[in-house]
C-alpha cells in the first residue's frame, strides 16, 4: 500500500512539473503584476493613442489615463479571456500579444527611441505605435473602450500564460493570444459622450501639455451607437 501511495504521488508530482513548464494557451491563466517601467510605458502609449484619436476626430473632452493600483488589483482577479466581465465602476479590455507583428515592430521602435535619442525620436515612435494600436482597437466597438473620452483610470496585469479567446472575444485581437488584461474606470456602463471640438477645448478643468483633460468629475453615459459611429468613421478615414 505504501509503495502504491509513493508511486501515485510520484506520478502526480511529475504531471504537475510538466504542467508548470507547459507554455501552451489555456482557458484560465493566472496573472502577474506589471513592473513600474511597464506601467509607465503603457500610460505613455495609451495616452498618446487617445491624444492622436482626439486630434483627428475632434473630441474636445478626451481625458488622460492615470495608473491606479486598485484597478490593477481588479485586473489581476480576471482569470479568463473567454468573455469580458465588466463591473459597476470598471470595464475590462485585453491587450495584444507580441505576436501581433505590426504592434511589436512599432513598440520596439518606441523602446529603442527612448534609449537612443528620446527627445528627437520619441514622438514619432509614439505616433507610429498609436497607428498600430488603431488597427487593433478601433476595429470593434468593444475594443474601442480604450477610446472612451471620460475614462480616466487604468490598471493592468499580465497573463502568466497565453490565454485562449472565447466566441465573444476572439475577434478582439486578430491572430495570437492576449498578453494581458486591463480594467478601465471609473465608468462601468456603456460609452461616455464625446464633446465635439478641438482636443482640450471642452475640458471642465485643467489639462495636460498634450491637451488631454485632467480628471475632475465624471457624469453621464451616452448611447453606444453614436460613439461607435465615430470610431467606425475614423477607421474608414485611416484606410484611405
Write the layout of secondary structure elements.
Elements: H1 2-21, E1 31-33, H2 36-57, E2 66-67, H3 69-76, E3 91-95, H4 101-116, H5 118-137, E4 153-159, E5 180-185, H6 224-239
Parallel strand pairs: 2-4
Antiparallel strand pairs: 1-4, 3-5, 4-5
Helix pairs in contact: 2-5, 4-5
Query: What's the order of the H and E elements?
Result: HEHEHEHHEEH
Please describe the biggest sheet, giving its number of strands, its sense, and whether it closes into a barrel. Answer: 5 strands, mixed
Count the helices. How many? 6
Q: Please indicate the count of domains.
A: 1
Determine and state the CATH class.
Answer: Alpha Beta
Mean pLDDT: 71
Distance between the ends: 74 Å
Strand content: 5-15%
